[in-house]
Each structure stands twice: as C-alpha cells, then as structure tokens.
C-alpha cells in the first residue's frame, strides 16, 4: 500500500522528494550543514526512521482473524496485542493475546502467539483465570499473486498446551494445517480466504472429532490510506466432545455448572474458533462447538508502521466479541 499522506507530510527516509534533504540538497555547504546537526537530534531521527519508515500495511491483520498470504519480508518483525471482551447468555470472558511475527525469508514467516491472561466468568459454575495456550505457526508462500490468480500459502500451526485451567485449554497438543489465498482488486480492495483442518488432542475421558475450519475476509483501503474498513466471516465444524470415562471438572456431581462459551486461547486468530463448553453429559473442557461468526472493524494508521484497530463480532451462539488492538512493525 502506498503511503502518500506520510510522504506529503515530509516523512521520507531522506526528508524530501527522491530521498534528498529538502532545501539544502545540491547547494554549496549542504554537506557541512548536515554534519553540524546536533548529535541528540540525529539519534532521535534515526530511531524514528527505524520504527516508522516503510509502507503502510496492505494485508490482513488486526482485528481480522483470517490469515493472509502476504507475509512479512525477510528480517521484518511485527508485534501486536489485543484486549478481548466477549459476552453471551452463559456469561463473559476476557483475554490478552499477543502475537510476534518474523519474516525468516520473503516467502517464509514465523508466528508465535501466547495468551498472557484469560479470565472466564460463567453465570453458573466455577470460574477460571490464568494463562492460555501457546500457538506457533509457520507459513510458506509457494505461489505469488498474478493478474487473475491469488497468492497461495500453506501454513502449519501447533497449539502447545500451556493453559493453566481446563476451562481455558484442553491440556493436549493440537495440529492445524491450512491453505491461504489472497487476491487484491485494484489499489483499494484486498481479499483473503482460508481452509483448514484441525487435529485435536483428546483429554482423558473425552472423545473429540477433528474439525474443518474456514474464513473469508475483505479489506477496503480508503484514499488517504490512514483508514481501513474490514469485514470477515469465520467458522468451524463441531468437535462433538463426549465423555467416555469419569466426568471432568464441571460435570455431574462436581457441583459446577457448564462453562461459558469462550475464546480464551487465541485460537480465534485462526479460522477455527475454540470454545469452553459443556458436553451433553456435563463434562466441561475447552473444545470447539460448531460456530459461524461475522465481524466488522476498522484500522487507523498513526504512522505507516503503527496502527490502532477495533473489531466487533457476533456468532451463532449469540456471543458478542469486542477486540481493540495495537500493532507496530520494526523494519
């Protein structure tokens, strides 16, 4: 995406058109003038260029959960954090997920997503608070976008069971391969589609079916390139958890009610959305029920490499999720 408004404001690597210093370039004594700039000012300018130089984002990102085939270029690092608040008839929950992205090569990207805090508060039954699971994803771009063919990437995700409670995570490792396609239309529209398959680890006494996941997103970049309007549809099939041995915490006889439908472990960053829900027998474990959710949101660019985001979604379980976030990129 072009960064015209930032260039018009004079924020270029060289300070003016063509990367040259405005005004003094090409004049006698110009080099001496630059060398006489106070050292603290040169240091501040260097730091600002490192943090905020480069084009604005032109691919899926917060508040979208849909993944993109537009990867970080080699050596580029991106950090984002989100505060999630979800409410439904069963209760509410909050979470603070982080995301660290790094471009290993121009076609290979590493994504690490810990959840530093999750807080589940159902209307009935026990509550849970603690850290969530850790997700690690490796994405490979194997086909670059052409005139009428989208960019295509393959990704493999591993969910490492670091959650501190069975209402937050299953305590088992999950594996999720998925396909990503991204296609732009002109300079303002960008679209993304995901298809995946999640191989779920099974907690003791619980039988889980593997699930299919899907997502589709669209982004509209306004003329100023400071504001993006985004929307998406995400969903997954049901893992149909059933108890085959002793009930887990929250089941009959435990004195605990069913868990609130929740998304505490950042799996919502993938097309599949995991929920804490009770099985038919009352077993309470963090497992995915069949779900489809729609989201609308926006991003506002403070700098080319720094933006704020906000998104609101509603799903078939009558859950409303609000996701404000901050993203910064380091070149």
Please explain how this structure is put together.
- The protein is mainly beta.
- It folds into two domains: 4-52, no CATH class; 77-330, Porin.
- It has three helices and 20 strands.
- It has a 16-stranded antiparallel β-sheet that branches. A two-stranded antiparallel ribbon has the order 11-14.
- The longest helix has 14 residues, at 39-52.
- It is globular, with a radius of gyration of 23 Å.
- The two termini are 16 Å apart.
Describe the structure concisely:
The protein has helices at residues 4-8, 30-35, 39-52; strands at 77-82, 84-88, 91-105, 108-113, 115-122, 128-130, 134-143, 151-160, 174-185, 189-198, 206-207, 211-221, 227-236, 242-243, 275-278, 284-287, 291-303, 306-315, 320-322, 325-330. It has 331 residues and is mainly β.
Strand tally is: 20
Distance between the termini: 16 Å
Structural class: mainly beta
Low-confidence stretches: 1-35, 46-59, 243-284
Sequence of secondary-structure elements: HHHEEEEEEEEEEEEEEEEEEEE
CATH architecture of the largest domain: Beta Barrel
Count of DSSP H/I helices: 3
Question: Helicity, in percent?
Answer: under 10%
Mean pLDDT: 77
Give the helices and strands, then pairings:
Layout: H1 4-8, H2 30-35, H3 39-52, E1 77-82, E2 84-88, E3 91-105, E4 108-113, E5 115-122, E6 128-130, E7 134-143, E8 151-160, E9 174-185, E10 189-198, E11 206-207, E12 211-221, E13 227-236, E14 242-243, E15 275-278, E16 284-287, E17 291-303, E18 306-315, E19 320-322, E20 325-330
Antiparallel strand pairs: 1-3, 1-20, 2-3, 2-19, 3-4, 3-5, 4-7, 5-6, 7-8, 8-9, 9-10, 10-12, 11-14, 12-13, 13-17, 15-16, 17-18, 18-19, 18-20
